[in-house]
TadE family protein (Microbacterium album), 168 residues
Amino acid sequence: MLPSKHCRDAVRARLRASTSRVRARLARAHADETGSAALEFLTIGLLTLVPLVYLVLALGQIQSQALGVESAARFTARAIAAGNAAAGAPDAVLASVVREYGVREARVRVECLPAAGDCPAPGGTVVVTVSADVPLPLVPPALGLDRVARVPVEATSIQKVSRFWEAP
């Protein structure tokens, strides 16, 4: 038994009213979101780009200081092993490399192996260790954060002194 024509018309009218309300809600929701994609893109872009740029800056500064410390250790050890110690060449080499790479607060430790005897000794080994602290960029000095936000870098160079080396 089929429903009456009056009943079918009432159901159709309700469906039309319901779909028109849903369409109206969707149209309002779509109108409310106009322009939000650009805002979302900018927000996500900034939230990912700013830390990425900071990471590149920090790693670049650390790498620069690491290369400077490594060069200072290597060239200072070579100058000592070559026999130019009396002429002040190791100090001049160290100062030149530190100035060239902009190494801040470089600390130098020189050891000779074997430890007994003169430093450097013919046939011995010269060990030069250079270390420095790299401050992270854009860290404010407030509350001493600039003293805490540092990355230590260190390099060691070992040079063999010739058996025929003579003290100047």
Summary: The chain is about 55% helix and 15% strand. The longest helix spans residues 36-81.
